[in-house]
Fold Nitric oxide reductase transcriptional regulator NorR.
Amino acid sequence: MSLSITSLANIAIELQNGISHQDRFARLIRTLRQLLGGDATALLRYEARQFRPLAIDGLAEDVLGRRFALDAHPRLEAIARAGDVVRFPADSELPDPYDGLIPDHTDLKVHACLGLPLFADQNLIGALTVDGMDPLQFDHFSDEELRLISVLAAGALNNALLMEQLENQTPAVAAVPGATRSSSEMVGLSTGIMQLKKEIEIVAGSDLNVLITGETGVGKELVARAIHRGSARAANPLVYLNCAALPESVAESELFGHIKGAFTGAIHHRIGKFEMADNGTLFLDEIGELPLTLQAKLLRVLQYGDIQRVGDDSSQRVNVRVLAATNRDLKQHVLAGEFRADLFHRLSVFPLHVPPLRERGDDITLLAGFFCEQSRVKMGLRQVTLTDGARELLRRYDWPGNIRELEHALYRAAVLARAGKADGEIWLQPQHFQLDTDAGVKPASVASAHHIPAVNNLRTATDDFQRRAISNALDANAGNWAASARQLQLDVANLHRLAKRLGVK
């Protein structure tokens, strides 16, 4: 079997159809998977020594949120270095980044793997990956045919990147020393987060002050970093100050600095945050906690650009853009006389609101994948995979602590799941997540919690319940373990292990 002119033409047509780049990319990999007969395909964007999935087909949804660093994924590094079609042998000892991430094949290793690096003007911009469970899956296709596919895909991806750069009107990341997209990236494709990204792109290129609002843990500092990164000040410092952690006695010195002898303990000159951020950006987190006396002095800096060190009679000019963040309703604090109205209006020239995680839908799954990959790398594991049951639990939870709570929950779950696992491949189950279900899970998922009878031994009761559940599932599915695993929302390999431990198998 080989690719016909018609099939290649179909790929080209798919890349012209669709109302968005995302739609075109989805069509491309869907068509490619059908043509090559693989079990999973992915289009990846390359930047800052990592691959970021743009579109996937046949892979778990959380893959879209994962970021694959070359240093942590030798197969992807091989694709990035190759410059041509890469065919990995079926017995390759290099771990596959998608092991455990192909639904219905989670208990099997990927056997056939193709990598097509994508170039624009000899620069690597991305890759296509095609994976299959059959070791001989792609042997019938020649390198020449696969190169044609990579050329078509590279052209489409390069056009999308050029359009993005024109729309953003921002310099390339490489123009900013040390900058990477991953350091200020907001993972998510929900309507709310996409709108926020557009607003960030609009305001970043200006020099306006920005007030960032949102609940604790939604990622307000991430928004501030994205604004700074997209601004003309990006090569200069972004200085952070948490106003809530400032004792009033030292707050003025922290902001504006002091001279030697200004007060007891001032044994040398010290510059403040405003001087540190000169020609750059100052991010004032929890601005609502700033004392009223300091609010007046901050207002003066915003109006005239002058600062005065504590104990110094002279003033000096600074050129600083101020980004402020709060989880409070500052309008109400203004009405209550707890926050200056004139400062509020100065700061909120361009307000940005970060939506809570519970309003971001499938972004929860993408973020879970992002943190799974981060925990895998930090803990030196081969694989960290979410079971269907774990994904469902995460989607149903309300996340009062937002993204910060999700991140901590994933890391705790990975630590618990790793206990006793020598092979470094862990599956995150619902029981690994220590969530406050009484406060955070939607009522439908805990409706039966009030009817659980009292027990004397929780472990024994849990084991008995799991034995009955497994036995009932096997009876309902005529002894089919794979079907029973799907019903129980477990990986089939984990079901076999659990059944063996419980004495069902």
User: Anything to note?
Assistant: Residues 66 and 370 are 4 Å apart (CA to CA). The two ends are 43 Å apart (CA to CA). The longest strand covers residues 123-132.
